[in-house]
Amino acid sequence: MAGVAYASATTSVFAVIGDPVRHSLSPALHAAAIRASGIDATYVAFEVAAGSAVEAIRGATALGLAGLSVTMPHKQSVIAALDALDPVAARLDAVNCVSFAGPVHERVARGHNTDGDGFVDALQHELAIHPADHRVAVLGAGGAARSVVLALAEAGANEVIVVNRNHERAEQAAELAGPRGRVGSVDDVSGADVVVNATSVGLGTAEGNRNGPLPLDPAWLHSGQVVADLIYHPAATPLLLAAAERGCRVMNGLCMLAHQAARQFTIWTGFAPPVTEMLAAARAELAVRAHDAG
Ligand code: NAP
Fold first, then answer.
1. Which of 25, 200, 232, 240 is the best mutation target for the ligand 1 pocket, counting ligand atoms within 8 Å of the beta carbon and taking the most?
2. How far is the CA of 196 from the centre of ligand 1 (A)?
3. Looking at ligand 1, which atom is closest to the CA of residue 232?
4. Could you say which of 16, 28, 43, 75 is catalytic?
């Protein structure tokens, strides 16, 4: 109930496992969701070393945890410990969320992946863009790109074009979109309605640095396009700065992060997610960190 000041035997315990996990925004996002929903729950972060995901799931099952967020490096290795996978997690062979169901001695641990749908939700809620009937170019073919490619195709995108340095990985990612997917090159970017940077190029660049690394030449971008970067640190990546200068509408990765967490919250609790509060909490946490970093 709202107002419980301590975790009791009836408090639902949610957690994130990852390594590193100290800078994860998941605790801020989920604490905001718990607060806004007034449920008796808490959310903590566990640093779990690479190679220990299976033990972590067994421990979480035995301890009766109510749900887990899963981040790097465990998104694939955790699968070996799960009893079931939802269809999206099975297609991606990657899990970012575990739910637990059933009585205490027969608990079923099920893997989900909310990353791609979180991206599509972010496009819809933050920019009022629905992928249906749009042509999308996705730069990158790693775990994040794969989840976005699948979700865009499932949401009805006309075409999902994967542009990646490594051709084999590009083909594997494009296959996730079925007949709507294909491997492309930067030549395809100017014809896309939506361009998504799902590479790690630009990650950690100093805020406001216009000369930072770019995943493509901004000359391919023009007004009328939407450019989304999955990176949220910095908030304004070199790509987003360049895209905005060329008249594109832009979105960084914080909205995706909030929406994928919102979907996890609903999987665990059945409650409608308070996304506005979650996003505000993530922004506040980032502002505190920026202030502390001087
Ligand atoms: P990943 O699996 O390691 O994939 C990295 C991708 O970036 C690969 O496609 C790689 O290309 C490409 N890449 C790396 N360096 C490059 C370079 N110098 N030039 C061109 N391409 C390069 O990583 P991931 O987990 O997919 O994450 C990708 C990005 O998404 C990261 O910045 C991460 O922080 C972000 N992300 C955001 C969210 C969110 O909620 N906002 C969620 C997940 C991830 P090759 O295949 O050719 O090596």
1. 200
2. 11
3. 41
4. 75
Question: Rounded to the nearest whole angstrom, what is the distance from the C-alpha of residue 12 to the centroid of ligand 1?
Answer: 33
DSSP letter string, the chain: -TT--S--TT-EEEEEEESS-TT-SHHHHHHHHHHHHT-SEEEEEEE--TT-HHHHHHHHHHHT-SEEEE-TT-TTGGGGG-SEE-HHHHHHT--SEEEEES-GGG-EEEEE--HHHHHHHHHHHHH----BT-EEEEE--SHHHHHHHHHHHHTTBSEEEEE-SSHHHHHHHHHTTGGGEEE--GGGGGG-SEEEE-SSTTTTPPTT-TTS--SS-GGG--TT-EEEES--SSSS-HHHHHHHHTT-EEE-THHHHHHHHHHHHHHHH-PPP-HHHHHHHHHHHHHHHHHHT-
**Average pLDDT over all residues of the chain:** 95
pLDDT tier at 133, thresholds 50, 70, 90: confident
User: In the predicted model, what is the mean pLDDT of residues 185-195?
Assistant: 97
pLDDT of residue 9: 87
